[in-house]
Amino acid sequence: MPFTANRQFKKAPRMLVAAEGMHYTTADGRQILDGTAGLWCCNAGHKRPKIVQAIQEQAAELDYAPAFQMGHPKVFELANRLVDLAPEPFEHAFFTNSGSESVETALKIAIAYHRARGEGQRTRLIGRERGYHGVNFGGISVGGIVNNRKVFGSLLTGVDHLPHTHDLKRNAFTRGQPEHGAELADELERICALHGPETIAAVIVEPMAGSTGVLLPPKDYLQRLRAITKKHGILLIFDEVITGFGRLGAPFAAGYFDVMPDMITCAKGLTNGVIPMGAVLTTAQIHDAFMTGPEHLIELFHGYTYSGNPIACAAGLGTLDTYAEEGLLTRGAELAGYWEDALHSLRGLPHVIDIRNMGLIGAVELEPIAGEPTKRAFSAFLKAYEKGILIRTTGDIIALSPPLIIEKDHIDQLIGTLGDVLKTLD
Asked: Mind listing the UniProt keywords for this protein, alphabetically (predicted)?
Protein backbone atom coordinates (compact mmCIF):
# COMPACT_ATOMS: atom_id res chain seq x y z
CA MET A 1 0.00 0.00 0.00
CA PRO A 2 1.35 3.47 -0.87
CA PHE A 3 2.84 5.64 1.88
CA THR A 4 1.43 3.21 4.46
CA ALA A 5 2.80 1.35 7.45
CA ASN A 6 1.72 -1.90 5.78
CA ARG A 7 2.36 -4.29 8.66
CA GLN A 8 0.60 -2.06 11.17
CA PHE A 9 -2.36 -1.55 8.86
CA LYS A 10 -2.92 -5.22 8.15
CA LYS A 11 -3.03 -6.00 11.87
CA ALA A 12 -5.91 -3.52 12.32
CA PRO A 13 -7.26 -2.39 8.92
CA ARG A 14 -9.03 0.95 8.61
CA MET A 15 -11.55 0.23 5.84
CA LEU A 16 -13.76 2.90 4.29
CA VAL A 17 -16.79 1.57 2.42
CA ALA A 18 -18.87 4.66 1.55
CA ALA A 19 -18.76 8.45 1.56
CA GLU A 20 -21.21 11.33 1.30
CA GLY A 21 -20.89 15.04 1.97
CA MET A 22 -18.42 15.59 4.80
CA HIS A 23 -18.27 12.00 6.00
CA TYR A 24 -16.82 8.58 5.29
CA THR A 25 -18.51 5.37 6.47
CA THR A 26 -16.29 2.64 7.86
CA ALA A 27 -16.72 -1.12 7.43
CA ASP A 28 -18.10 -1.31 10.96
CA GLY A 29 -20.70 1.38 10.22
CA ARG A 30 -19.12 4.39 11.95
CA GLN A 31 -19.23 7.93 10.49
CA ILE A 32 -15.82 9.61 10.09
CA LEU A 33 -15.69 13.38 9.60
CA ASP A 34 -13.31 14.07 6.70
CA GLY A 35 -10.77 16.63 7.92
CA THR A 36 -8.44 16.20 4.94
CA ALA A 37 -10.68 16.22 1.83
CA GLY A 38 -9.51 12.67 1.20
CA LEU A 39 -5.91 13.39 0.28
CA TRP A 40 -6.26 17.15 -0.25
CA CYS A 41 -8.47 16.39 -3.26
CA CYS A 42 -12.21 16.05 -2.49
CA ASN A 43 -12.70 19.80 -2.27
CA ALA A 44 -16.44 19.61 -2.96
CA GLY A 45 -17.00 16.78 -0.51
CA HIS A 46 -18.17 13.30 -1.43
CA LYS A 47 -20.84 11.76 -3.67
CA ARG A 48 -21.69 15.03 -5.36
CA PRO A 49 -24.64 14.58 -7.75
CA LYS A 50 -23.37 16.59 -10.74
CA ILE A 51 -20.05 14.74 -10.75
CA VAL A 52 -21.67 11.33 -10.40
CA GLN A 53 -24.13 12.10 -13.19
CA ALA A 54 -21.44 13.46 -15.50
CA ILE A 55 -19.35 10.32 -15.12
CA GLN A 56 -22.31 8.00 -15.67
CA GLU A 57 -23.49 9.80 -18.78
CA GLN A 58 -20.01 10.03 -20.29
CA ALA A 59 -19.29 6.33 -19.73
CA ALA A 60 -22.47 5.51 -21.62
CA GLU A 61 -21.65 7.88 -24.50
CA LEU A 62 -17.87 7.86 -25.14
CA ASP A 63 -15.75 5.82 -22.77
CA TYR A 64 -12.35 6.45 -24.36
CA ALA A 65 -10.87 8.41 -27.22
CA PRO A 66 -7.20 8.33 -28.26
CA ALA A 67 -5.34 11.48 -27.34
CA PHE A 68 -2.69 11.19 -30.06
CA GLN A 69 -3.78 12.85 -33.32
CA MET A 70 -7.43 12.70 -32.16
CA GLY A 71 -9.67 14.71 -29.87
CA HIS A 72 -13.16 14.87 -28.38
CA PRO A 73 -15.32 17.86 -27.44
CA LYS A 74 -15.08 17.67 -23.66
CA VAL A 75 -11.29 17.93 -23.52
CA PHE A 76 -11.46 21.29 -25.30
CA GLU A 77 -14.41 22.40 -23.19
CA LEU A 78 -12.55 21.58 -19.99
CA ALA A 79 -9.38 23.32 -21.22
CA ASN A 80 -11.38 26.47 -21.96
CA ARG A 81 -13.08 26.33 -18.56
CA LEU A 82 -9.72 25.97 -16.83
CA VAL A 83 -8.22 28.88 -18.73
CA ASP A 84 -11.24 31.03 -17.84
CA LEU A 85 -10.77 30.13 -14.17
CA ALA A 86 -7.01 30.66 -14.09
CA PRO A 87 -5.32 34.06 -13.79
CA GLU A 88 -5.12 36.08 -17.00
CA PRO A 89 -1.68 35.04 -18.34
CA PHE A 90 -2.66 31.38 -18.70
CA GLU A 91 -4.14 30.43 -22.06
CA HIS A 92 -3.38 26.73 -22.62
CA ALA A 93 -3.74 23.41 -20.77
CA PHE A 94 -1.92 20.09 -21.17
CA PHE A 95 -3.72 17.20 -19.48
CA THR A 96 -2.09 14.44 -17.43
CA ASN A 97 -3.29 11.80 -14.97
CA SER A 98 -1.93 13.07 -11.65
CA GLY A 99 0.03 15.74 -9.87
CA SER A 100 3.20 13.71 -10.24
CA GLU A 101 2.72 13.54 -14.02
CA SER A 102 1.86 17.24 -14.15
CA VAL A 103 5.20 18.03 -12.54
CA GLU A 104 7.11 15.77 -14.94
CA THR A 105 5.28 17.43 -17.83
CA ALA A 106 6.05 20.95 -16.63
CA LEU A 107 9.74 20.16 -16.14
CA LYS A 108 9.99 18.68 -19.64
CA ILE A 109 8.14 21.61 -21.19
CA ALA A 110 10.49 24.05 -19.42
CA ILE A 111 13.61 22.40 -20.83
CA ALA A 112 12.10 21.96 -24.30
CA TYR A 113 10.88 25.58 -24.31
CA HIS A 114 14.37 26.96 -23.85
CA ARG A 115 15.73 24.62 -26.53
CA ALA A 116 13.00 25.78 -28.93
CA ARG A 117 14.13 29.36 -28.31
CA GLY A 118 17.77 28.56 -29.02
CA GLU A 119 18.88 28.32 -25.36
CA GLY A 120 19.40 24.59 -25.14
CA GLN A 121 22.05 25.05 -22.47
CA ARG A 122 19.27 25.80 -19.97
CA THR A 123 18.75 22.32 -18.50
CA ARG A 124 19.26 22.87 -14.78
CA LEU A 125 16.24 22.64 -12.47
CA ILE A 126 15.88 24.25 -9.06
CA GLY A 127 13.55 22.95 -6.36
CA ARG A 128 13.33 23.63 -2.66
CA GLU A 129 14.15 21.75 0.52
CA ARG A 130 11.05 20.12 2.03
CA GLY A 131 9.25 20.58 -1.29
CA TYR A 132 6.90 17.88 -2.52
CA HIS A 133 6.37 17.49 -6.26
CA GLY A 134 5.07 13.96 -6.58
CA VAL A 135 6.91 10.67 -6.69
CA ASN A 136 8.31 10.27 -10.21
CA PHE A 137 12.03 10.74 -10.77
CA GLY A 138 11.75 14.37 -11.81
CA GLY A 139 9.45 15.19 -8.92
CA ILE A 140 11.59 13.59 -6.23
CA SER A 141 14.71 15.15 -7.75
CA VAL A 142 13.40 18.71 -7.48
CA GLY A 143 11.52 17.79 -4.32
CA GLY A 144 13.21 18.00 -0.97
CA ILE A 145 11.63 15.41 1.33
CA VAL A 146 14.46 13.14 2.44
CA ASN A 147 12.57 9.86 2.77
CA ASN A 148 11.12 10.27 -0.72
CA ARG A 149 14.63 10.53 -2.19
CA LYS A 150 17.25 8.66 -0.21
CA VAL A 151 16.55 5.06 -1.24
CA PHE A 152 16.10 5.67 -4.98
CA GLY A 153 19.62 6.28 -6.19
CA SER A 154 21.23 9.35 -7.72
CA LEU A 155 18.04 10.81 -9.27
CA LEU A 156 18.28 13.52 -11.95
CA THR A 157 21.53 15.37 -12.40
CA GLY A 158 21.72 19.15 -12.69
CA VAL A 159 19.32 19.86 -9.82
CA ASP A 160 19.83 22.25 -6.92
CA HIS A 161 17.61 23.36 -4.04
CA LEU A 162 16.59 26.57 -2.34
CA PRO A 163 16.34 26.48 1.46
CA HIS A 164 12.91 25.85 2.95
CA THR A 165 11.04 28.67 4.67
CA HIS A 166 10.01 26.96 7.92
CA ASP A 167 11.37 28.97 10.85
CA LEU A 168 9.90 27.90 14.19
CA LYS A 169 12.17 30.18 16.17
CA ARG A 170 10.89 33.37 14.52
CA ASN A 171 7.48 32.45 13.12
CA ALA A 172 5.80 29.99 15.51
CA PHE A 173 2.03 30.41 15.94
CA THR A 174 1.75 32.86 13.07
CA ARG A 175 -1.73 33.54 11.73
CA GLY A 176 -1.48 33.61 7.93
CA GLN A 177 1.78 34.54 6.22
CA PRO A 178 4.86 34.69 8.46
CA GLU A 179 6.64 38.01 8.91
CA HIS A 180 10.15 36.60 8.63
CA GLY A 181 11.91 34.82 5.80
CA ALA A 182 11.44 36.77 2.55
CA GLU A 183 15.22 37.03 2.26
CA LEU A 184 15.41 33.27 1.73
CA ALA A 185 14.28 33.87 -1.86
CA ASP A 186 17.59 35.67 -2.42
CA GLU A 187 19.35 32.30 -2.16
CA LEU A 188 18.37 31.90 -5.79
CA GLU A 189 20.91 34.60 -6.63
CA ARG A 190 23.61 32.53 -4.93
CA ILE A 191 22.58 29.45 -6.92
CA CYS A 192 22.63 31.50 -10.11
CA ALA A 193 26.13 32.72 -9.30
CA LEU A 194 27.27 29.15 -8.58
CA HIS A 195 25.97 27.53 -11.77
CA GLY A 196 25.46 30.48 -14.12
CA PRO A 197 21.88 31.71 -14.59
CA GLU A 198 22.10 30.94 -18.31
CA THR A 199 22.16 27.20 -17.43
CA ILE A 200 18.95 27.23 -15.37
CA ALA A 201 15.69 26.26 -17.07
CA ALA A 202 13.17 26.55 -14.25
CA VAL A 203 12.49 26.98 -10.56
CA ILE A 204 9.60 24.95 -9.15
CA VAL A 205 8.00 25.65 -5.78
CA GLU A 206 4.69 25.12 -4.07
CA PRO A 207 3.31 28.57 -3.28
CA MET A 208 2.29 26.96 0.00
CA ALA A 209 4.01 23.65 0.73
CA GLY A 210 1.32 21.17 1.74
CA SER A 211 2.52 17.59 2.04
CA THR A 212 5.62 18.55 4.00
CA GLY A 213 3.46 20.05 6.73
CA VAL A 214 1.70 23.25 5.58
CA LEU A 215 4.67 25.60 5.25
CA LEU A 216 3.42 29.08 4.44
CA PRO A 217 5.38 31.56 2.29
CA PRO A 218 6.77 34.52 4.25
CA LYS A 219 5.46 37.92 3.24
CA ASP A 220 7.12 39.12 -0.01
CA TYR A 221 8.92 35.79 -0.51
CA LEU A 222 7.08 34.75 -3.67
CA GLN A 223 7.32 38.27 -5.11
CA ARG A 224 11.09 38.26 -4.67
CA LEU A 225 11.37 34.80 -6.21
CA ARG A 226 9.38 35.97 -9.21
CA ALA A 227 11.55 39.06 -9.64
CA ILE A 228 14.79 37.05 -9.59
CA THR A 229 13.55 34.45 -12.08
CA LYS A 230 12.40 37.16 -14.47
CA LYS A 231 15.71 38.98 -14.14
CA HIS A 232 17.62 35.88 -15.28
CA GLY A 233 15.15 34.52 -17.86
CA ILE A 234 14.30 31.50 -15.71
CA LEU A 235 10.82 29.98 -15.83
CA LEU A 236 8.89 29.88 -12.55
CA ILE A 237 6.57 26.91 -12.00
CA PHE A 238 3.97 26.93 -9.24
CA ASP A 239 3.00 23.45 -8.10
CA GLU A 240 -0.66 24.03 -7.22
CA VAL A 241 -1.71 20.41 -6.95
CA ILE A 242 -2.89 21.20 -3.41
CA THR A 243 -3.51 24.96 -3.51
CA GLY A 244 -5.49 24.88 -6.75
CA PHE A 245 -9.31 24.96 -6.73
CA GLY A 246 -10.23 26.96 -3.67
CA ARG A 247 -8.00 25.71 -0.88
CA LEU A 248 -6.83 29.23 0.03
CA GLY A 249 -10.12 30.94 -0.78
CA ALA A 250 -9.29 31.70 -4.43
CA PRO A 251 -9.27 29.51 -7.56
CA PHE A 252 -5.45 29.39 -7.58
CA ALA A 253 -2.71 30.51 -5.20
CA ALA A 254 -1.14 32.54 -8.03
CA GLY A 255 -4.19 34.78 -7.92
CA TYR A 256 -4.40 34.72 -4.13
CA PHE A 257 -0.82 35.96 -3.77
CA ASP A 258 -0.96 38.02 -6.99
CA VAL A 259 2.26 36.44 -8.22
CA MET A 260 2.14 35.07 -11.76
CA PRO A 261 4.42 32.13 -12.59
CA ASP A 262 5.02 30.83 -16.13
CA MET A 263 3.35 27.48 -15.51
CA ILE A 264 0.90 26.04 -12.99
CA THR A 265 0.62 22.33 -12.26
CA CYS A 266 -2.66 21.06 -10.89
CA ALA A 267 -4.58 17.83 -10.21
CA LYS A 268 -6.51 16.63 -7.11
CA GLY A 269 -9.33 19.21 -6.93
CA LEU A 270 -9.57 19.32 -10.73
CA THR A 271 -11.89 16.30 -10.65
CA ASN A 272 -12.65 16.38 -6.91
CA GLY A 273 -10.38 13.34 -6.61
CA VAL A 274 -13.01 11.13 -8.23
CA ILE A 275 -11.17 10.26 -11.47
CA PRO A 276 -7.37 10.59 -11.78
CA MET A 277 -6.49 13.71 -13.76
CA GLY A 278 -3.94 16.50 -13.77
CA ALA A 279 -3.07 19.47 -15.94
CA VAL A 280 -0.30 21.95 -16.70
CA LEU A 281 -1.42 25.49 -17.44
CA THR A 282 0.91 27.60 -19.57
CA THR A 283 1.08 31.06 -21.02
CA ALA A 284 0.73 31.71 -24.75
CA GLN A 285 4.42 32.58 -24.85
CA ILE A 286 5.42 29.06 -23.80
CA HIS A 287 2.83 27.33 -25.99
CA ASP A 288 3.63 29.39 -29.09
CA ALA A 289 7.37 28.70 -28.85
CA PHE A 290 6.64 25.14 -29.94
CA MET A 291 4.28 26.05 -32.78
CA THR A 292 6.90 26.38 -35.52
CA GLY A 293 8.06 24.35 -38.52
CA PRO A 294 5.93 22.21 -40.87
CA GLU A 295 2.37 21.79 -39.60
CA HIS A 296 2.29 18.00 -40.10
CA LEU A 297 5.06 17.45 -37.53
CA ILE A 298 4.48 16.76 -33.84
CA GLU A 299 5.44 19.85 -31.84
CA LEU A 300 5.87 18.27 -28.37
CA PHE A 301 6.98 14.65 -28.05
CA HIS A 302 5.22 14.03 -24.78
CA GLY A 303 1.86 12.76 -23.56
CA TYR A 304 -0.05 9.92 -21.95
CA THR A 305 -2.52 7.28 -23.08
CA TYR A 306 -5.06 8.83 -20.73
CA SER A 307 -4.34 12.52 -21.37
CA GLY A 308 -7.75 14.20 -21.48
CA ASN A 309 -9.63 10.94 -20.94
CA PRO A 310 -13.34 11.58 -21.75
CA ILE A 311 -14.64 10.30 -18.41
CA ALA A 312 -12.03 12.31 -16.50
CA CYS A 313 -13.00 15.40 -18.51
CA ALA A 314 -16.65 14.82 -17.66
CA ALA A 315 -15.72 14.54 -13.99
CA GLY A 316 -13.73 17.77 -14.28
CA LEU A 317 -16.63 19.63 -15.86
CA GLY A 318 -19.04 18.31 -13.24
CA THR A 319 -16.60 19.39 -10.56
CA LEU A 320 -16.18 22.91 -11.95
CA ASP A 321 -19.98 23.22 -12.24
CA THR A 322 -20.33 22.21 -8.59
CA TYR A 323 -17.68 24.70 -7.50
CA ALA A 324 -19.35 27.50 -9.47
CA GLU A 325 -22.92 26.83 -8.39
CA GLU A 326 -22.01 26.61 -4.69
CA GLY A 327 -19.36 29.33 -4.62
CA LEU A 328 -16.81 26.87 -3.27
CA LEU A 329 -13.70 28.41 -4.83
CA THR A 330 -14.05 31.47 -2.61
CA ARG A 331 -15.77 29.88 0.38
CA GLY A 332 -12.45 29.32 2.09
CA ALA A 333 -12.05 33.08 2.40
CA GLU A 334 -15.45 33.38 4.08
CA LEU A 335 -14.65 30.73 6.70
CA ALA A 336 -10.95 31.52 7.10
CA GLY A 337 -11.37 33.65 10.23
CA TYR A 338 -13.49 31.10 12.06
CA TRP A 339 -11.15 28.31 10.98
CA GLU A 340 -8.11 30.28 12.16
CA ASP A 341 -9.56 31.00 15.60
CA ALA A 342 -10.61 27.37 16.05
CA LEU A 343 -7.16 26.06 15.11
CA HIS A 344 -5.28 28.46 17.34
CA SER A 345 -7.49 27.50 20.28
CA LEU A 346 -5.31 24.36 20.43
CA ARG A 347 -2.30 26.43 21.48
CA GLY A 348 -1.05 25.41 24.89
CA LEU A 349 -2.16 21.78 24.65
CA PRO A 350 0.46 19.12 25.40
CA HIS A 351 3.36 18.85 22.92
CA VAL A 352 2.00 21.55 20.54
CA ILE A 353 4.96 23.65 19.35
CA ASP A 354 3.36 25.46 16.41
CA ILE A 355 0.04 26.14 14.71
CA ARG A 356 -0.26 27.73 11.27
CA ASN A 357 -3.10 28.40 8.89
CA MET A 358 -4.27 30.02 5.67
CA GLY A 359 -7.61 29.75 3.89
CA LEU A 360 -9.09 26.35 4.76
CA ILE A 361 -5.82 24.66 5.55
CA GLY A 362 -3.96 24.27 8.79
CA ALA A 363 -1.22 22.46 10.66
CA VAL A 364 -0.52 21.55 14.26
CA GLU A 365 3.13 20.72 14.79
CA LEU A 366 4.00 18.42 17.69
CA GLU A 367 7.25 18.04 19.57
CA PRO A 368 8.75 14.72 18.43
CA ILE A 369 9.38 11.90 20.87
CA ALA A 370 13.14 11.72 21.38
CA GLY A 371 14.58 9.03 19.13
CA GLU A 372 11.16 8.14 17.67
CA PRO A 373 10.24 10.72 15.04
CA THR A 374 6.69 10.59 13.62
CA LYS A 375 5.44 8.29 16.41
CA ARG A 376 3.57 10.95 18.39
CA ALA A 377 1.69 12.29 15.36
CA PHE A 378 0.88 8.78 14.12
CA SER A 379 -0.57 7.99 17.52
CA ALA A 380 -2.74 11.11 17.17
CA PHE A 381 -3.89 9.90 13.73
CA LEU A 382 -4.98 6.52 15.11
CA LYS A 383 -6.77 8.01 18.11
CA ALA A 384 -8.50 10.60 15.91
CA TYR A 385 -9.82 7.86 13.64
CA GLU A 386 -11.21 5.99 16.62
CA LYS A 387 -12.93 9.18 17.78
CA GLY A 388 -14.52 9.78 14.38
CA ILE A 389 -12.31 12.29 12.54
CA LEU A 390 -9.86 11.83 9.69
CA ILE A 391 -6.62 13.83 9.93
CA ARG A 392 -3.35 13.52 8.04
CA THR A 393 0.14 13.41 9.46
CA THR A 394 3.49 14.15 7.88
CA GLY A 395 6.41 13.68 10.19
CA ASP A 396 5.20 15.02 13.54
CA ILE A 397 2.87 17.52 11.91
CA ILE A 398 -0.90 17.13 11.79
CA ALA A 399 -2.25 18.60 8.55
CA LEU A 400 -5.89 19.59 8.06
CA SER A 401 -7.58 20.50 4.76
CA PRO A 402 -11.31 19.79 4.98
CA PRO A 403 -13.74 19.82 2.05
CA LEU A 404 -14.80 23.34 1.13
CA ILE A 405 -18.40 22.49 2.00
CA ILE A 406 -17.49 22.37 5.70
CA GLU A 407 -19.82 24.21 8.10
CA LYS A 408 -18.94 25.89 11.39
CA ASP A 409 -20.37 23.00 13.42
CA HIS A 410 -18.10 20.63 11.50
CA ILE A 411 -15.12 22.86 12.34
CA ASP A 412 -16.14 22.78 16.00
CA GLN A 413 -16.37 18.99 15.93
CA LEU A 414 -13.10 18.53 14.04
CA ILE A 415 -11.02 20.87 16.20
CA GLY A 416 -12.77 19.90 19.43
CA THR A 417 -12.13 16.21 18.84
CA LEU A 418 -8.54 16.89 17.83
CA GLY A 419 -8.09 18.84 21.05
CA ASP A 420 -9.38 15.87 23.04
CA VAL A 421 -6.89 13.64 21.20
CA LEU A 422 -3.96 15.96 21.87
CA LYS A 423 -4.72 15.93 25.59
CA THR A 424 -4.21 12.15 25.68
CA LEU A 425 -0.86 11.95 23.86
CA ASP A 426 2.20 10.68 25.68
From this structure: Aminotransferase, Pyridoxal phosphate, Transferase
